Structures are given as C-alpha cells and as structure tokens.
Amino acid sequence: MSLGYLALVLHAHLPFVRHPEDDDFLEEDWLYEAVTESYIPLLWTMEGLAADGVEFRLTMSLTPTLVAMLNDELLRQRCERRLDRLCELAEKEVERTRHLPDFHDNAVFYRDRFRAAREDYSNRWKRDLVGAFARLQQAGKLEIIAAAATHGFLPLLRANPAAVRAQVLIGAGDYAETFGREARGVWLPECGYYPGLDGTLKEAGLRYFFVESDAIQHASDRAKFGVHAPLYCPSGVAAFGRDPEASRQVWSSSEGYPGDPDYREFYRDIGHDLDFDYIKPYLHRDGRRVNTGIKYHRVTGRTDSKEPYVRQRALDKAAMHAKHFVESRQRQVEGLRVAMGRKPVAVAPYDAELFGHWWFEGPVWLNYLCRNIAGNRDSLEMIAASEYLAEYPVNQAATPGASSWGYKGHNEVWLNAANDWIYRHLHAAADHMVELAGHFPAADGPTRRALNQAARELLLAQSSDWAFIMTSGSMVPYAIRRTKEHLLRFQRLYEMVKENRIYEEWLGEVEDRDNIFPRLDYRVYRADYKFASERGQAREAVNLKTKGKL
What we know:
By secondary structure, the protein is an alpha/beta fold. It contains 20 helices and ten strands.
C-alpha cells in the first residue's frame, strides 16, 4: 500500500505542417525529428517495460494535429525516407570515424539505433505510431487524453465563445474517432484556463484537465491540499495542478537534470560541424545547414569547448537522476500523507518532445524511473488522474484562477508586441464562421464542402504555435506566413459562400493541402449543435470498423 502517487503526463504536440507541393519542406523536419528522436524512443521504453512485466502508468496527450500528421500517408512516406537517409549517413560516419576513437563508438551507436528505428517504424509498427500508443492504452499502461482541435490558446480566443467551443468539441470528437472511446481527460493548450471554460469541457464529456500551479493558488477558495489533490470546478470537472518541485527537477535550466555535463549536447550536430561538401547530401536542398540527429559531444558545462559524449556515463547519470527523482517524490508524499490524511498526488507534466529530442537521455531516465517505482510501491505508485478520481471521488469545490504555463503563469507569450496583430483577424474570422453556420443550417454539395473548409482554415489559423514562434524569434516568417495564408483562404471561402459562387477547382486544391479533420461538420459553430450525437456516431463507426462492416 503506497503513501502517495505520481501522475506523470507527457504532452505530445506539433502544429499541422504538411506541404504536398514541396518534396523537401524545411519545417516538416519538426515531425521527422520528433518521430525519430522522441516518439519511437518513448514507444521503445513503454513497450520494453510492458514486455518485462513492469507495473507502470503514464498519461499522454496526442493532439489532433499530431495524430493527423502521424497518420498521413504522404508524411509517413517522407518520414520513412528520412530514416533511410539517416541510416545511410550513419554508415558513412562509421567509416569516417574509424580512426577517431573519441567518436567511433558513438557512430556505431547511431548506426545501430537508426537501423532499429527504421525496422520498427516500417515493419513492426507498420508506420502506425498512433496505433502503437493506442495498444499501450488498451493494455492499461497508458492513458491517452484529448486536446483542443488545433491547439488554439483558448483564453485569447474567448472573445467568441463559439470558437472555444469548436476547438474543444472537435478535439474530443477527433479523439473518439481515433481511439474508439470517449476521452476521460484533456490537455488544455499551453495549460491555458479561464473560469467558465470547464463548462465547455463538461459538454464534451471530459472529466479532468491539468493547470499550472498558479491556477490552484489563485482559486476562488484556498485549496486545502494545494496542488496535491484536484479541485472540482462548478461544472464538476476536476482540475489537477502541476507540482512545482517535480517540474523544476526536470525543466529548470539551472537545477534540471538535462543540463548535466554528461548528457548529450543538443546544439552540437554534425550537420553544422562537418565539411560542407561531405554533409551536403543530408542538408536541405538549398544548402542550409540543419540538424541531422548525429551529435558527438556532451554538455560539458557553460563553455563552447565541448568534450566527447560517453554513452555509458550518460546512462549512469540517467539511472542516478531517476533514483533521485523517485526519492524526492517519496519524501514529498510521506510528509503530505500525514498532513492531508489521504494519499497525495504529485502531477508532473512535460512536453513529450523533451524526452529524446531536447533531452536525449529522457526516455532512458523514464525507463529507470518506472522500474524504480515498480520496485518500491510501498511508498510511491504511478497513477492516471482518472484513477485518482475513482479512488477519491470527493474533493474540494472551487474555481481555479486564470493561468497558463507560460511566463509567470500569464498569457504574454501569446499576446505581445510581436504577435498582437493576429487576434483582431482571428476574432473577425470566428464571427464570420458563426455567421455562415447560422445562415446555412443544412448546406450540401459544394457549399457544404466550402463551409467545412472554411472551418478548417479558421482552426489552423488559431494554432497557438504561430503566436509562440513569433515570440520566440525562431522561424518567424513561416509562422506569419501560415497565419496569413489560412486567414486569406478563410476570407475567400467566406466570400464564395456568401456570393454563392464556389470555385470547385480551387476548393479541391485547398482541401488537398489542408486535409485535416476529413469528417468535420461546420455546424459545430452553431449554438444548437449537439455533441453527444457526434460522439455516438464516432463510436458506432469504430464498432462497425472493428466488426469488418466498414
């Protein structure tokens, strides 16, 4: 019998980046890097734990935009091609470093790793990573939760409540269609919450969500147990607060594990280090230097002089840091259990892409962590939020405060001088979408297609990623371009529908390019839209498919 719980949550998300018009589009690399460096290693970790009979429980969001890309046949082919190129480059590196003892062992390691990734992606998982994660959910090891349709930052979309509602309902419906069950919980984009949002979550059938610790600290009533037990919002939906201590040990730039000198250095990649003529075939076609994923140096310290990476030393550190994390949580829950009179839960949410991509040893740390906890279940157990609610159905009622997991817990990352111009356009487009849905309660044919595509363009323009990129200063032209393109396409579709002149050839081109949510119903923007029937249709479709009737 444990004294408390750890709820470890991985938020897997990427913006929808799909460019069929370009065979070598730079920003599509975001997906291929995440697949190779994060999602495949995380699957290796979870499946390895399950195969060894290790008791573990993780929670993971797979956002609709990410699911759409992972399931897209064109992007699957391109991802496979990326793995082929990495295997080829790694083979060349084994030969090039044959007489470089500081790097040769690492070159062999990368060759074997890329070969295994290529084999498993194509043959073991049949390029279906979503299905692989779904099987872990079916086995009771992973709870996959829903997310908003395109990761729109809901606190800044609330000027039009229908826009927020559409993001939530479409996201929940997409989850039901993908996984054949209704979602229990949801990941709010950027953990962005405002009082009243929980009512929309309830309409979507969602039972819990996660918030920054500030939301619990600034709740309408003082949270008796702080962030270590959920609060029930007025709607009855539960809010779980992020544990600051658990987060700091992983995220902090000064205290977090990923900054350890023995871990792999992210910013030293052979795509930037090696002779241009040698590495050119593996760069972007315009000759721009890019990361290949082959990195031979370790963090070393705050210096530009980086020492060679030693894999075994990094593995030893991952084991040590996992043990330290578990011991910290054990001490934490032991003290809290006495004060609370019930088992506390420490919620530790992280971006999934931290594990493997930014922090190369992250999946190894997670492996050690789960094994360590499984061997010490008398003091600490892993749990999903839905299971905690089942064990403790009675909780304090209070309204969390408005917050996000952005800078200082507020919204300025997504609303500042670099990106504030987008919102007047997003709000105007949302108003127009509601207008169209109201004027066309039962459109069909090309008009219905245009209305559905207008909804897709609005949703894609609302992605929080574009505002974030404008703030971060990286790939800003692309973020601006994507925002403007979707808004301009929306405006043209709006005018076509209003004028009853649908240009089907152009519409077909746009449908092919922005092909997310193929079964989207534009009437989600109507106040009388009934989400329950949509969920039932999704379940029935999955059941029929399972029975071989579709």
